[in-house]
Amino acid sequence: MEGEPTLRLRVFDLNCWAIRYLSKRRQERVRLIGDTLRREGFDLVLLQEVWSEQDYSDLKVKLAGCYPFSHYFRSGVIGSGLCVFSRFPILDTLLYQYSLNGYPYMLQHGDWFGGKSVGLVIMKISGIIFNVYITHLHAEYCRDKDAYLPHRLVQAWELAQFIRHTSKAADVVLLGGDLNMHPEDVGIRLLRGWTGLRDAFAEATRFEGCKNGCTLVPDNCFTDKSELLPFPLGIRIDYILYKAISSFTVKCEELKTTTGPAPGMDIPFSDHEAVMATLHIQRQGQPVGATLGTADLALADVVTEARTEVGVGLRAARRQRYSSGRMAVLALLLLLLQAVAALGTLAGLGAEQPFPKLSFCLLAFLALGVLALATGLHLFHTMEVKMLHGTEDQMWMALRALQERPSEG
Amino acid sequence: MEGEPTLRLRVFDLNCWAIRYLSKRRQERVRLIGDTLRREGFDLVLLQEVWSEQDYSDLKVKLAGCYPFSHYFRSGVIGSGLCVFSRFPILDTLLYQYSLNGYPYMLQHGDWFGGKSVGLVIMKISGIIFNVYITHLHAEYCRDKDAYLPHRLVQAWELAQFIRHTSKAADVVLLGGDLNMHPEDVGIRLLRGWTGLRDAFAEATRFEGCKNGCTLVPDNCFTDKSELLPFPLGIRIDYILYKAISSFTVKCEELKTTTGPAPGMDIPFSDHEAVMATLHIQRQGQPVGATLGTADLALADVVTEARTEVGVGLRAARRQRYSSGRMAVLALLLLLLQAVAALGTLAGLGAEQPFPKLSFCLLAFLALGVLALATGLHLFHTMEVKMLHGTEDQMWMALRALQERPSEG
């Protein structure tokens, strides 16, 4: 079967950092990205952080000639930021919004407003069915004390589950995006172990670009140098992952990253480096085996580790649910107390009005404000508890399945 | 192949109306449901509106003997209300939360707090892979002027897409739940047309129960009689739908509904009637064909109709987004004006204080409250616009695919 025809697919992945009013030299960079994509003629382009629909429309017009097919995934307040451009027809799409994605009150970390999701586009190229996934997980703002780790792990788990459940009819699965996790992080190991996806960087025959495949590097003029101090070479958080499901093999012939400034320009495309993979897909005589028995043990360890972290998040969320609920009850009690006092005064029980009117009103409004806020927080953390608990349960079910597998074989 | 072994599966579906503190005689009814399920020994039980996790745990304990496998889907503030009990092992689960589900400020219609979702459980029975879906769509509070129709249509669409994308490896697909739609409604036609699911009531060889298979009937002592005035026989909104995907056929041998009071009791299980189907699954020599070309035209009409309704919802959501945004801007302006006036007084520009202190403070607090509320509403309706717009786009893509199909063939 070695003589079977092969398909070569060139994939481009980039976190564009195109936040209207906030990202530096945004329009100039989006133009530059569009020009490069048109000139280079990739087969498939996966972009994240295209937050403005206008930027997407501009790119769509510019790229209509070489990438006639495209899709923008709408979600959240300002969108998912995810879009796909393709040389081949897009047959179908589906969006899955992660159940947890940070906190709406953490305005300085705008992740909640982005409605983080995973987008799926289905394509058929030379008779091969491709399930292409694009995603962007919650950012890591502080590696030492990462308050968002449980949320990011829930996202990694939901991403893995979504890929597993929707890719059963696919021949080849591709995932591109900014996963906001280092290659050895538990979330990446969970995702790779649970889906069987392989890392294009680790598998590439040829590599060219930033050392260790890093995609957030000090050489990029837009990166925050202080954040990268513990990592002098930079970090790798943008990935192209792949696997063949049915009787195909996928190999990564070449992987490239940009290295700061775009070729022949003085500025980079973005604060992230682009990842470019050339994949080589060939039909094989027999299906490639699924995850092996020996790998199951390692996978069970990863799931256990992830489940522990989710449990830590669950306990924190329960504490926050409790304290916001207690705050709401206290505010309600204060309001009731004030109402009783006011009614007492009206009924002429007290000879004179006991409090200055202004302070009394201010206090009532304050109590009302605290009540509203604390109730909102309580509802939010209740949802958070539900989702963390649900994920913990699902992971437990996965562990049981993993442990039972050898005895079945 | 007529001689192939067959599988007979008995399925029970019920909206349990088990809202803590609100549903009448809840604990008594949950006990009754548990007793009946234990006595009758179904193969698969799909329950909705089990809002209290305690009720689920009680049922789980009671049913451990005859239904050793179960799953509760957590989501939203008070849960999804969805749970499954099964005689056969549950291999895997996945939850998909609908992107739209009413409005948090419609407290009297609590749907938003329920986190409406579709749950998937995967089972293997006698070597046949079952994808079982359970769901509960947004309620219809006023049929003549149904403000939630666009949201329910988005849910029906997402449900159909989720089923299509996750059932590729299944042999048999089952869907049970309270769809809150009459059999001829556009959402049901969309769901059935787009997935190819068949209605157990329409296909049943034998039927026994309420006339027309109604599941919300005046004979039930818990139903609101005034709501059912236009429908003297009741309405049918709870369904069991099914289809075979690979080389199997599914037939509905018998369909039953309860008819008000539970057998031998003075009260019904719930305000809804239970739906019980006996399905007959047989292996066939060749795969059953997918949707036919002639059906595509009718399906295109349904998708067009649904898309029009989603468009109506999109325009309404855009109006609400605009008016809440305008309100927020006005409140902000008022606050700024007050700040200027207060600063002016402090700086001694005005000879005397121009307003009574109390009214001034009250006005400021009012403006602040309106600003917070209007901003929240604006964010919410922005998300609503995004999701309606995204669904409209997806439906357009589906229409294009439907129209292109004949030319491909």
TrEMBL record, chains A, B:
Residues 15-272 form the Endonuclease/exonuclease/phosphatase domain. GO terms for biological process: sphingolipid metabolic process. It is found in: Membrane. GO terms for cellular component: membrane. It is a multi-pass membrane protein. Its main location: membrane. It catalyses: 1-O-hexadecyl-sn-glycero-3-phosphocholine + H2O = 1-O-hexadecyl-sn-glycerol + phosphocholine + H(+); 1-hexadecanoyl-sn-glycero-3-phosphocholine + H2O = 1-hexadecanoyl-sn-glycerol + phosphocholine + H(+); a sphingosylphosphocholine + H2O = a sphingoid base + phosphocholine + H(+); 1-O-octadecyl-sn-glycero-3-phosphocholine + H2O = 1-O-octadecyl-sn-glycerol + phosphocholine + H(+). Belongs to the neutral sphingomyelinase family. This is Sphingomyelin phosphodiesterase 2. It comes from Cyanoderma ruficeps (rufous-capped babbler).
